[in-house]
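Record type: ASSEMBLY
Status: queued
Input:
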Amino acid sequence: MGNKSSLMLQEQDIRDIQAETGFLPSQIERLYSRFTSLDKGDSGTLSREDFLRIPELAINPLGDRIVHAFFKESEDDHVNFRQFVRVLAHFRPIKKAQDNKLNAREEKLRFAFKMYDLDDDERISREELLAVLHMMVGENISDDQLNSIAERTILEADRDGDQMISFEEFCSALERTDVEQKMSIKFLK
Amino acid sequence: MPHYLQSRRSASSHLLTAGVTHYSTHSFASEACSRSLAGPTYRRHPLQNDVRMELSLLNMLWSPVEEAAAFLNSLEVWEAVRPFVLWGQLMVFVCFLLVATIGRRLKLRRKYVELLDGVFNFAAFKLADDTDEEEEEDEAATSSDEEVVICPESPRAVPASHEGSFRFEDPLPYLAAGMRAVVSDCVTKSFTSAELRTWNMLSRTKRQRYLRKSPSLTVFWAVGFVLRWVFLMPVRVLLLVISLTTLIVLCAAVGLLPSSAFKRRLNKRVVMWCFDFVAGSLSIVARFHNPENRPTHGIAVANHTSPIDSMVLATDQCFDMVGQKTRGLLGLFMGALSRSSYHIWFERSESKERSKVIQVIQEHAQDPEKPPILIFPEGICLNNTAVVQFKKGAFEVDSDIYPIAIRFDLRYGDPYWYQNTFTGYVFSMMTSWAIVCDVWYLPPTRRGPNESAAAFASRVKSQIAHRGGFVQLAWDGFVKFGQQSEAWQRKRGEWRQRQQDAFARRLSSNEAEERKRE
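Status: finished
Output:
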């Protein structure tokens, strides 16, 4: 039998995670099954290579940023199951009847904001926006064109004229977007 | 991980199994095919497990059982029960022997399968109450699947917002698609044991909590456990040994005859009967559809699920196999088969082998006297829910191609090798209820005058996928081995480029609109 004591998820852990994220126990078990199947080294944690082993993620233009989002909270470059679920909880669909903590609209927007804001200074600078644009289009558009696109985007959203986008400006730029629908994925039971 | 491969090779050569010759295609993505010999490189996890899971479950129930056993022993009941168990085993053995040798005609296997069907329906009924309530609510709230498609072939980017230029919300669908891939992606799903909709009484396929839920189900499971491990498994092992020995001996005997039409006919009958015998020992119940399309010459291609695929097909038609040469007992077995017919064995590491093998295949396929060749163009095993891209090597040959679709009914037993070791795999198969499959013979096709080999391969792949009800994946087989394969590193950049191209196209069409307006 394996030497991992964490092979089986304890009832208490499931309850804690349910309280924190709002996932159902069956969903948590399923995510745990997924977690262990990604964990090739049987270490109880995931490394960046484990994530990038998923083919669809590896060829996603934003793949590296997505992986980075999981590792933001961890200190030692490894993601344990709680951190894994906590990040995924942001993408839970919003249910009217329930108390939504991590997947409320503001939390989702904050997650999207953090994807742009790499240096964590609560502002999206033009360079950060350019970096994301570059990831999305690759070599297809020249740098000058990209520059002008980025400038135009910032100009439209910038309220206080500091050439950077704060979280409030970000939220108002996305006011009319259906963030709840765009940033939700289906979790099977 | 060469040492890992070595241990697999020695393990497989120590165990006699027919059809474990891993008939990869002759067009060799070097590591990918040889790794299919070695099986998967990932571990078990608590919800789908190999035989050790069942034993651990047994541990849970063991203490009351132990007390009961001690009690019974003191009553000397075991002494009384033992002859019954032994008689039971003997009866099962005789039954199986009959079924394996002549059972096809008596349709005994099918009756067994129908009996199991009834039990599974009962289990499904018992478990059905709690699972279906909240599923409808989720449908509305999640992002629609018509948006971003992240795929090696024909990726699709989200239509950018109408006002033109880049908006902050444009990358969001890619973010969601990435998260969706983290939770569940089609590729990894196809390389793990498939999930069943109902419970089939094997603890390896259902979560532990369900076992404690309904007492009648626990009883069923316990009875099933005893049946499978005490009666079915030892009998099957014994029968397997007998059948394999018979196969080797008879093939060698036929091989002694001089080459003639009589020898070919005899070889055909002998090999088919022997493989049927072996298949009976594993309780393989196969149903063949459209026998009028059964291959008689040329090349047959099929989707690959497990090492026993070729054995299943060999019970209905005698094929010549294409495979990698191996040493040990497996090599002995392959040698024995070779003596009676013209199988094609090659050595993958030799560089000139590919063109040589294609030549041999071409000659073999065009000779109307020889039996058809069986090739698995995917190059790796999948879990029988999807097909990956077919390698074009087999489709370059100028001859009739007979597509075959093999679909296993996974409720009775899963032949996909997801266990860590070969013995684990064999035991898992031996302790399943049965291996049930449907085989469809599709009408033969040929490459069109202007059709490239790759296009032809795609065409045949979609035919097989339609018939068998498989998902078609645009991915190449070597993604199973992730970053370890150089082919993946090369292709990954290329595929990512395509996604970027798709997005850039959307963006620049918006830009053109914007500029027109200004």
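Annotation: The beta strands of chain B are 284-289, 299-302, 320-324, 344-346, 373-375, 386-387, 401-409, 435-441, 471-472.
Annotation: The first strand of chain B starts at residue 284 and ends at 289.
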